[in-house]
Amino acid sequence: MPASTIPLAVPRTRLRAVAAPMATALACLAFLPGLAAAAAPVRLTLHPAALVEQAVVRLGDVAAVDTDDADLAQELQALELGRIDAGTRRYARLEIARHVARRLQLRGRAAAAALEWAGAPEVQVRRSGGQMDGERIVAAARAALQRRLEGLGMSATLQPLRRPGALPLPAGDWTLAAQAPAVLRETLRVQVDVSVDGHLLRSVPVWFALSAADGGPLPAPGQGAAPVQRGARVSVELQQGAIRLERAGMALADARIGQRARVLMEPSANERQARAARPAVLVGTVAGHARVTLAQEDRR
């Protein structure tokens, strides 16, 4: 019989054996999360800067993740991008996008093909140099407010209403600058600027409740103890152009903010050596607690 007419006989059992695994594999593929049709839309917005406390940098530290898939959002936020032991490190958005896509593809995630990126072209990551205790911020605000009250001749009890939490700090020299408001009320806010290496990091509000020491209403300005009291040591300041002179003296009478005060000046070293020099009495204007701005000189 010619070879072209030889019939091929394939057992039905073999056909069934081959078809069954193929059907099972196709059915499994239909439910794999890697199929793009099942992927939820994901938008990632890269921040221009990020401050981290830990050495490991994760996607959630440098970008905002926007998706309706809560599990996917958690997975993306936890993706590790690298390490930073000290100082700063820059990550380009394209670099992060490629890294994230590879990690998701290895996990069979369809989101790798559906990511939408926005935001800064790169992010600068800084490692935190520690924490600023919230109580330290409150103490700076309290000191500034206390100086303001003393300058106005007022006495009051200060009670913090809202205490700020710990503030992460980058490595560097930090400073605190607090400024009390010009108008004092029973409830007020003091702004505390936290700076690192001369650059403002955060402005933290600290709220206080003010009340009289005896629990009564808050006294009006000028009703408390005088900022300059008789017999107390005061600082006398003289400003002439860019030159500022300061000397110590003793107040000869009580005086309040804006009032004139007579001050007996302490003799200088040269005057003490001369001994014949008469003590000088200066007349100035009270500018704050134990502070007098020189107006004119009046020698006895």
Quick rundown:
The chain is 23% helix and 40% strand.
CATH superfamily heading of the largest domain? eubacterium ventriosum atcc domain
- Amount of beta strand: 35-45%
Question: Which outline best applies?
Answer: elongated
- Main pleated-sheet profile: 5 strands, mixed, barrel
Q: What is the CATH C level class of the largest domain, in words?
A: Mainly Beta
Which CATH architecture of the largest domain is right? Sandwich
Helical segment count:
6
Helix vs. strand class: alpha+beta
Contiguous low-pLDDT stretches (5 residues minimum) are 1-8, 13-19, 22-38, 296-300
Count every beta strand, where a strand is a DSSP E run of 2 or more residues. 18
Distance between the termini: 147 Å
Q: Taking all residues together, what is the mean pLDDT? A: 76
Radius of gyration: 37 Å
Could you say how many structural domains there are in total?
3
> What is the helix fraction of residues, given as a range?
10-25%
- Secondary-structure element pattern, one letter each: HEEEHEHEEHEEHEEEEEEEEHEE
Describe this structure in words.
The protein is α+β, with helices and mostly antiparallel strands and 300 residues long. The protein folds into 3 domains: 36-128, eubacterium ventriosum atcc fold (Sandwich), CATH 2.60.480.10; 133-211, no CATH class; 233-299, SH3 type barrels, CATH 2.30.30.760. The protein contains 6 helices and 18 strands. The strands form 5 sheets. A 5-stranded mixed barrel has the order 14-15-16-17-18. Strand 15 and strand 16 form a beta hairpin. The radius of gyration is 37 Å and the shape is elongated.
